[in-house]
C-alpha cells in the first residue's frame, strides 16, 4: 500500500458509506440502518444522498427535493460521522445510482464506497440502470427489516464478495406510513426526529389534500 492511497491514521483506505434514498421524509429506520452499518464496517463517514428524481417512484407525487434535502440535514446534524450530499438533487434528470457512485468516486478518490440499501430495494437492483457495473464501484450492504427480506435468487446473481446482508434492529417504519399518518392527523413523533416533525408542520408537508 502506498502513502497516497492511505488516508486514515491506521493506514487503511477511507471507508465511505453511501445511504441513498428518497427520504420523503427521512425516519428513524434510515438512521438506525446507517448507524448499524457504520459500526459493522467501521465506516469513517456515512453520506446520505437524497434522490433528485426517483424514476421508479414516478407514479406518485414526491415532495420537492429541497424539502427532502433539508429534512435529511436536520435529521443527521447531530452525528459527527453523518453528512449529506447534493450530488443527486443537483444533477438534472432521473436519478441513477450509477451516476451517484461515479460522482462520489470523483469527489473522493481516496475512499472505498459502501452503498447501504434496504433488502427490498436491493431485491430490485437488476432493474436499475447499468446494474452489473454498480458492483465494480461499491460494495453493497443490504439491510433487512421486518417484511423486507432479500430474494435469494437476486442475491445469488450479485458477486458474492460485493454484497453483505446485515440484520438491523427491527424498525418497521416506512416513509409511506409517516406520510399517511401525517395526512390522517396522527402523530409522527418518535418515528422521525423531532426537528423533522417540526419541519413537516412548519411547511405543511403531507397535508390531507396533498397526495
Ligand atoms: N425501516 C427501515 N429499515 C431499514 N432500511 C430501510 C427502512 N426504511 C427504508 N429503508 C431503506 O432505506 C432506503 C431509502 O428508503 P426510502 O427513502 O425509499 O424510504 P422508505 O421508507 O422505503 O420510503 P417509501 O415508503 O416512500 O417507499 C431504501 O434502500 C430502503 O429500503
Ligand atoms: O439506479 C437506478 O436505476 C435506481 C433505481 C431505483 C432506486 N435507486 C436508488 O436506490 C435508493 C433507494 O431508492 P428509493 O426509491 O427506495 O428511495 C436511492 O439511492 C435510489 O436512487 C436507483
TrEMBL record:
As its record notes, the protein acts as a catalyst of: nicotinate beta-D-ribonucleotide + ATP + H(+) = deamido-NAD(+) + diphosphate
Protein EC:
2.7.7.18
Q: Which Pfam families match?
A: CTP_transf_like
Q: From what superkingdom does this record's organism come? A: Bacteria
The answer to whether the entry has keyword NAD is yes
Pathway named in the protein's UniProt entry? Cofactor biosynthesis; NAD(+) biosynthesis; deamido-NAD(+) from nicotinate D-ribonucleotide: step 1/1
Q: Which UniProt keywords apply?
A: ATP-binding, NAD, Nucleotide-binding, Nucleotidyltransferase, Pyridine nucleotide biosynthesis, Transferase
The Cytidyltransferase-like domain extends over 18-181
Q: Report the coiled-coil segments.
A: none
Q: Which SUPFAM superfamilies match?
A: Nucleotidylyl transferase
Q: Which family does it belong to?
A: Belongs to the NadD family.
Q: What does this protein do?
A: Catalyzes the reversible adenylation of nicotinate mononucleotide (NaMN) to nicotinic acid adenine dinucleotide (NaAD).
UniProt-listed NCBIfam families:
cyt_tran_rel, nicotinate (nicotinamide) nucleotide adenylyltransferase, PRK00071.1-3
Q: Protein name, please?
A: Probable nicotinate-nucleotide adenylyltransferase
Q: Which organism is it from?
A: Nocardioides ginsengisoli
Gene this protein is translated from:
nadD
Amino acid at each position: 500500500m502506498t502513502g497516497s492511497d492511505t488516508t486514515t491514521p491506521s493506514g487503511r483506505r477511507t471507508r465511505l458509506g453511501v445511504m441513498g434514498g428518497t427520504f420523503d421524509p427521512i425516519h428513524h429506520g434510515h438512521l438506525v440502518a446507517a448507524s448499524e452499518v457504520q459500526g459493522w464496517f467501521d465506516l469513517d463517514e456515512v453520506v446520505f444522498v437524497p434522490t433528485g428524481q426517483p424514476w421508479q417512484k414516478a407514479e406518485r407525487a414526491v415532495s420537492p427535493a429541497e424539502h427532502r434535502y433539508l429534512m435529511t440535514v436536520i435529521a443527521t446534524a447531530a452525528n459527527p460521522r453523518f453528512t449529506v450530499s447534493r450530488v443527486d438533487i443537483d444533477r438534472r434528470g432521473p436519478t441513477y445510482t450509477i451516476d451517484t457512485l461515479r460522482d462520489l468516486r470523483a469527489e473522493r478518490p481516496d475512499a472505498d464506497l459502501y452503498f447501504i440499501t434496504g433488502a427490498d430495494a436491493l431485491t430490485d437492483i437488476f432493474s436499475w440502470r447499468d446494474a452489473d457495473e454498480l458492483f465494480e464501484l461499491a460494495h453493497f450492504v443490504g439491510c433487512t427489516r421486518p417484511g423486507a427480506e432479500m430474494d435469494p435468487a437476486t442475491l445469488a446473481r450479485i458477486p458474492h464478495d460485493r454484497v453483505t446482508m446485515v440484520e438491523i434492529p427491527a424498525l418497521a417504519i416506512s416513509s409511506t406510513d409517516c406520510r399517511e399518518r401525517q395526512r390522517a392527523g396522527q402523530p409522527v413523533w418518535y418515528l422521525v426526529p423531532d426537528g423533522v416533525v417540526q419541519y413537516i408542520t412548519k411547511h405543511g408537508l403531507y397535508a390531507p389534500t396533498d397526495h
